[in-house]
Write a structure and sequence with these properties.
Layout: H1 2-23, E1 28-33, E2 39-42, H2 43-48, E3 52-57, E4 64-71, H3 72-78, E5 94-100, E6 105-109, H4 110-113, E7 123-128, E8 131-132, E9 141-143, E10 157-164
Parallel strand pairs: 1-10
Antiparallel strand pairs: 1-2, 3-4, 4-7, 5-6, 5-10, 7-8, 7-9
């Protein structure tokens, strides 16, 4: 009887844990701002978008890391941010504030992320070396190849805000 109670208790704990993990919200990124539609992007959404891979050297260890994700410009275009030939005049003064769940934030100008204006290949990565980003870095990380220091490589990205640096 006592052993049966233990088995049932263990089964209850396991089922409870499965329920908690199944109820956990999927990783999301919120893109919002002036004159664009607010967009919620999930990990599943990212896997359906055109992917870009970048190999970068980790400055602390010197090791090469292989990141995969979606171009930042593709995400912004999906939210309605003018890019390419549509980016003109005051639009060039647009900036993107990238925010992380730990409070870290950085700014990119629209010209830095628009492939019509630069060869920059800034991505929102969701994998490194073929594996999903770990809890310390993920679920999303902005990777900026070519920068001398990874100070603007934002880990744990959860929001992007698109604004103009000039008034209307």
């Amino acid at each position: 009887m006592r052993q049966r109670f233990r088995q049932l208790s263990l089964l209850f704990l396991l089922l409870s844990a499965v329920g908690i993990f199944a109820a956990s919200p999927a990783a999301q990124l919120r893109i919002s701002g002036s004159n664009i539609q607010t967009l919620e992007i999930t990990s599943a959404d990212l896997t359906k978008m055109p992917r870009l891979a970048v190999d970068v050297r980790e400055p602390h260890s010197g090791e090469t890391q292989h990141y995969e994700g979606v171009r930042l410009s593709d995400l912004l275009a999906k939210a309605g941010v003018p890019l390419g030939e549509k980016l003109r005049g005051r639009g060039i003064a647009t900036y993107i504030l990238v925010q992380a769940s730990d409070g870290y934030a950085v700014v990119f100008s629209i010209a830095e992320v628009d492939p019509a204006l630069t060869d920059n290949r800034i991505i929102l990565a969701d994998t490194m070396n073929g594996k999903p980003l770990g809890e310390h870095d993920g679920p999303f990380k902005v990777v900026v190849p070519g920068e001398k220091r990874p100070a603007r490589w934002v880990r744990m990205v959860n929001a992007m805000r698109v604004e103009s640096a000039v008034g209307p």
